[in-house]
Amino acid sequence: MQKDQIVVGLDIGTTKICAMVGRLNEHGLLEIIGIGKAPSEGVIRGQIANLEKTKQGIEKAIKEASDQADVDIKVVKVGISGHNIRSSLTVGSIVRENKDIEISWNDVERLTQDIHRTVMPAGFQLIHAMPQDFTLDGEVGISNPIGHSGVKLGAEYHLVMAETEVVNKIHKCIKGTNLFANELILEPIASSLAVLTTEEKDQGVALIDIGGGTTDLAIYENGILKYSSVIPYGGNIITNDIKQGCVLMQAQAEILKTRFGYALTEEADDNTVVSLKGLKGRPPKEISVKQLSYIIQARMEEIIEFILAEIHHAGYLNKIPAGVVLTGGGAKLNGLKSLFMLCSGMDVRIGYPNEYLGKSKFEDAKNPIYSTVIGLMLAGFNTIDERFKEHHHPLEPVAKANSETDSPIINIWDRFRRQTSTFLNEDLNSGTDYKN
Asked: Which of 207, 221, 328, 353: CA 20 to 30 A from 95?
């Protein structure tokens, strides 16, 4: 991997489309050199509904990021989410010809490629195939088979699938803007790269990314993604409740929610009133912050119930010692951490995507709203060094590569990197050029 490599993340969200350009600094941390944003007018609950409007938003965001970074952007890492996402478990195995030869990375790769040929449900295609524990000649619970000897190598895989039509729409929008998406990544996986620590993933943790149209869930245990889900409710439904409950315009409701709203009513001041400018010829409208918070808490409790039901369904309600990490734009809601702790009884923290960020002129990039797009860039930098394939497998982070390219963010993607690809992989250096 080259120090001057440029990676571009593209988050096509329900409320915004964000493109971000990054490179590694001299300390091996991610430096943001360009951010582009555009309103997302063609996406509903994480799915593209209007191709033309979505393409226009992508073009605007890419141009802004390109101008700031002074690069010609051609290749992007793209996130996928939406209620079309499905996950399941499957088991696969291969038979090796010589049991006396130690298992290598190529054997694990062969097993994973077999899983990629698994027949999908009608209308769906595979996005990620991630091994859990391995088995070897009947022995179970093997975390890393490389270096072992045996004949029959097997593993349980966590599969993430998406509707083919949804994937095709993303591909059409990207291609329609003269870009190439060399990898499609589930958004909660991307966000986890940006905000979760290795210790949290090892102990057991639930990442909850609250976006505008959806809430993404990813559960980790022993450093492995164990469960993923997308809940078709996000911050926009709260904004709509405020709009209807207070009889306001959409923009006014959004401002009230983000600037004055509380997810926990008891934290709101009883006597605070917000005065909103009325329409032409009409007097200002006064809204009680306390009443506003009643509306927010009622809907937020409902969303939390859906989240806890998913965690229970996954069998992890009492099995995540590291608790919950909230990220995404919805995580910024005042009092949400307290409300979630009250409803769940779990430890909760807000996840900021600053774990692997170096200094840059875009300090606001540490905002939780950028967790997904930063995770997409981190995924682009986490390429396994060819010389270390034989000593590590997709479940264990690769240690230091060499003194020249050591980086805190190298290989945190290796748990997924070589197991997943919706579009053909391509070296980013061949698709992104500096302007003269």
From this structure: 221
